[in-house]
């Protein structure tokens, strides 16, 4: 949910509660005021009646009956009871379906020795319509405030949050070592300008750390190659010596092979790191059909030597957009594996159709779980030559470009399907 | 032939020197940018072997300097950097070849010879190894003046041997020289044996000597003795 939607929702919800509570409070206060007014009027009327009754005595009875708002009931209470009580009543007038709300004051009056119970009525209809009025106006005000408030809030927020969204947009695509971050927009709001400062600082730090790490790893990696070059050169020179003992030769060859492996391992790890850091930015449109044919051509001899039956079905003009070095590494690794882990006289099937490359080769079942096949340093063969990074490189490249890669084993055939 | 070797790693320099000196080259070895600069300004070399990362400067600048001064010097870069970009930069600056560390001394030797041959326009483009004559212009080989038909790989193999006469060459180095990165697809270097066998047989069929000695578990040696 967007920030603005969320604030507006909270605002609306809060406004609704305030208006409901406020409306009720308003209503009860007003109603109370009105009732007090009515009650006061009733009490003063009662006082007038009682005063008149004391003067006029029984003769006042007739006079009282003329009034619409007074009802006289003969009561049998004892004289001297001067209490009174208020109550609400509904009175139905002929022809009207709805009763009318009245406020009633009941008291006893002594008219010439007879005690009468007297009701004075006063219409309270005014307060009813008042309630309606209040409810209606409250609703109107609520809707107006809600509507207007929402719109106002939306525009104000949008304006206030604008620099925030722009900053968000700028840093969204940030990637260490990628395009430099463009200048963050100035904001007069202190929180935002502080945010910008923090982002600026973080980006600078991340960038310098990234470059340092990148340089360190690359330098370390290159520095390792030099002593390896020395080991290899020295062992090669040793081998040139005349009259070398067979055992010594064996040891020197061992040293040389280990140095080669270490060097390849080092290069593969450096490559993995470079792909990880997305240092292969440049992309080209590559004719995969041509590249694949070229690679197969180069491997042809090895294929023949292992008596592998190669079946290829390569569509022409299948293009892929990626870095050329990575494309070469990808194909080399896939094809090399399919030959290396093939059996003598086995099959190799290479199919290329638009967006899909399938490489199948005969081979023994894996004794590792297929899911682990792409993990680093997982080796299937015990061959010393294998460094166990080939398929990790493939996977890493696929992840970089969001290509799909899947492994399947069926009918003694390993199948690697590559979808791009 | 006069060679310049610019490499800051003393041990590597000494090994390269030892290997190349037997080829009869005159080798100047320096380890810093400034020393190299001085040498380049003073002398003309037939071939320069240059490391890119040097104390005091970049090997690329040395290459530019050489090219300004004496155009026909052949240049080989030896560098630990193996990215395509580094190689392209090196070749664009004017180097003839790019060798990634670690490398085989036999490979470096073969490349130096190849460059010297290419640079040496006036000289005859023939290599003579005992009874075998290799004419480079048209890739023709004659054994006792009888033409020898070789496959492309056998021809390259023979050239590699000819560049490293009487040297022990490992199977690994032959495989890398002939197949490059594709050797990763092989589970052993035994496949080289087929080519060696064929080459040996073809030469001997024309009355040539058995030059190739197999060093078990190690490699081969092409002898003229």
Question: What layout of secondary structure does this protein have?
Answer:
The complex is a heterodimer of chains A (420) and B (225).
Chain A: H1 3-56, H2 60-65, E1 70-74, E2 84-91, E3 100-111, E4 114-123, H3 125-172, H4 190-239, H5 246-276, E5 284-287, H6 288-305, E6 309-314, E7 319-322, H7 324-340, E8 347-353, E9 356-362, H8 390-401, E10 404-410, E11 413-419
Parallel strand pairs in A: 6-8
Antiparallel strand pairs in A: 1-4, 2-3, 3-4, 5-7, 8-9, 9-11, 10-11
Chain B: E1 2-6, H1 10-21, E2 26-30, H2 33-42, E3 47-51, E4 53-54, E5 57-58, H3 59-69, E6 74-79, H4 84-93, E7 97-100, H5 105-119, E8 126-129, E9 132-135, E10 140-143, E11 146-148, H6 152-163, E12 168-170, H7 171-179, H8 191-205, E13 212-215, E14 219-222
Parallel strand pairs in B: 1-2, 1-3, 3-6, 6-7
Antiparallel strand pairs in B: 4-5, 8-9, 9-10, 10-11, 12-14, 13-14
Helix pairs in contact in B: 2-3, 6-8
Would you kindly provide a written description of the structure presented here, covering whatever features stand out?
- The complex is a heterodimer of chains A (420) and B (225).
- Chain A is of the alpha+beta class.
- In chain A, 56% of the residues lie in helices and 18% in strands.
- Chain A has a five-stranded mixed sheet, with helices on one face. In chain A, strands 1-4-3-2 form a four-stranded antiparallel sheet. In chain A, strands 5-7 form a two-stranded antiparallel sheet.
- In chain A, helix 6 runs parallel beside helix 7 (324-340) and helix 7 runs antiparallel to helix 8 (390-401).
- Chain A is rod-shaped and about 160 Å long.
- With 225 residues, chain B is α/β, with parallel strands linked by helices.
- Chain B folds into two domains: 2-119, Response regulator (Rossmann fold, 3-Layer(aba) Sandwich), CATH 3.40.50; 126-222, Orthogonal Bundle (Arc Repressor Mutant, subunit A).
- Helices cover 42% and strands 24% of the residues of chain B.
- Chain B contains eight helices and 14 strands.
- The longest helix of chain B is centred in the middle third of the chain and has 15 residues, at 105-119.
- Chain B is globular, with a radius of gyration of 18 Å.
- The two termini of chain B are 24 Å apart.
- Classes of the chains: A alpha+beta (420), B alpha/beta (225).
- The A-B interface holds A 221-223, 225-226, 228-234, 236-237, 239-240, 246, 249-250, 253, 256-257, 259-260, 263, 267, 274, 298-299, 301-302, 305, 324-325, 332, 335-337, 339-340, 381, 383, 385, 390 and B 9, 11-12, 15-16, 18-19, 53, 80-84, 100-106, 153, 167-168, 170, 172-173, 179-182, 184-188, 191, 194, 215-219.
């Amino acid at each position: 949910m967007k920030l603005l939607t969320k604030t507006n929702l909270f605002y609306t919800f809060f406004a609704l509660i305030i208006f409901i509570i406020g409306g009720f409070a308003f209503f009860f206060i007003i109603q109370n005021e009105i009732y007090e007014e009515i009650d006061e009027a009733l009490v003063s009327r009662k006082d007038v009646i009682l005063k008149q009754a004391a003067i006029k005595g029984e003769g006042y009875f007739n006079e009282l009956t003329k009034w619409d708002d007074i009802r006289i009931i003969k009561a049998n209470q004892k004289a001297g009871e001067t209490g009174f009580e208020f109550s609400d009543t509904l009175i139905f007038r002929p022809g009207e379906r709805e009763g009318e709300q009245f406020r009633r004051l009941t008291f006893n009056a002594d008219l010439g020795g007879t005690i009468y119970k007297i009701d004075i009525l006063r219409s309270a209809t005014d307060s009813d319509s008042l309630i309606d009025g209040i409810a209606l106006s409250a609703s109107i005000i609520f809707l107006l405030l809600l509507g207007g408030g929402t719109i106002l809030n939306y525009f104000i927020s949008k304006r206030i949050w604008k620099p925030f969204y722009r900053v968000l947009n700028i840093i969204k695509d940030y990637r260490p070592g990628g395009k430099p971050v463009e200048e963050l927009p100035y904001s007069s709001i202190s929180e935002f300008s502080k945010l910008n400062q923090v982002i600026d600082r973080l980006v600078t730090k991340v960038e310098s750390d990234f470059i340092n790490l990148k340089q360190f790893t690359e330098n370390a990696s290159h520095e390792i190659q030099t002593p390896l070059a020395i080991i290899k050169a020295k062992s090669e020179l040793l081998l040139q010596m005349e009259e070398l003992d067979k055992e010594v030769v064996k040891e020197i060859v061992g040293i040389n092979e280990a140095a080669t492996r270490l060097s390849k391992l080092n290069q593969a790890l450096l490559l993995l790191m470079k792909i990880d850091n997305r240092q292969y930015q440049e992309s080209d449109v590559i004719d995969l059909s041509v590249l694949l044919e070229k690679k197969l051509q180069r491997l042809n001899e090895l294929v023949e030597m292992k008596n592998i039956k190669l079946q290829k079905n390569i569509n022409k003009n299948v293009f892929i957009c990626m870095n050329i070095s990575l494309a070469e590494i990808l194909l080399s690794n896939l094809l090399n594996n399919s030959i290396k882990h093939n059996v003598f006289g086995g099959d190799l099937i290479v199919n290329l159709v638009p967006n899909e490359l399938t490489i199948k080769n005969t081979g023994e079942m894996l004794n590792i779980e297929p899911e682990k096949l792409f993990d680093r340093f997982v080796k299937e063969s015990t061959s010393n030559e294998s460094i166990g990074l080939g398929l990790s490189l493939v996977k890493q490249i696929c992840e970089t470009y969001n290509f799909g890669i899947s492994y399947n084993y069926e009918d003694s055939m390993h199948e690697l399907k590559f979808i791009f | 032939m006069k060679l310049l070797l610019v490499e800051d790693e003393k041990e590597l320099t000494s090994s390269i020197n030892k290997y190349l000196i037997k080829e009869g080259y005159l080798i100047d070895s320096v380890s810093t940018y400034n020393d190299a600069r001085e040498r380049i300004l003073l002398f003309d070399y037939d071939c320069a072997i240059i490391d890119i990362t040097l104390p005091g400067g970049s090997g690329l600048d040395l290459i530019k300097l050489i090219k300004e001064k004496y155009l026909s010097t052949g240049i080989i870069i030896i560098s630990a950097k193996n990215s395509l970009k580094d190689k392209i930069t090196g070749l664009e600056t004017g180097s003839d070849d790019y060798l990634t560390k670690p490398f085989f001394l036999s490979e470096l030797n073969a490349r130096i010879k190849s460059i010297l041959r290419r640079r040496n326009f006036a000289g005859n483009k023939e290599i003579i190894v005992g009874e075998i004559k290799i004419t480079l212009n048209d890739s023709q080989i004659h054994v006792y003046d009888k033409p020898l038909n070789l496959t492309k790989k056998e021809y390259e193999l023979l050239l590699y041997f000819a560049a490293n006469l009487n040297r022990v060459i490992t199977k690994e180095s032959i495989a890398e020289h002939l197949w490059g990165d594709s050797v990763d697809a092989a589970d052993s270097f035994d496949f080289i044996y087929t080519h060696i066998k064929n080459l040996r047989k073809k030469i001997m069929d024309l009355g040539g000597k058995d030059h190739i000695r197999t060093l078990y578990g190690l490699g081969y040696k092409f002898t003229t003795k």
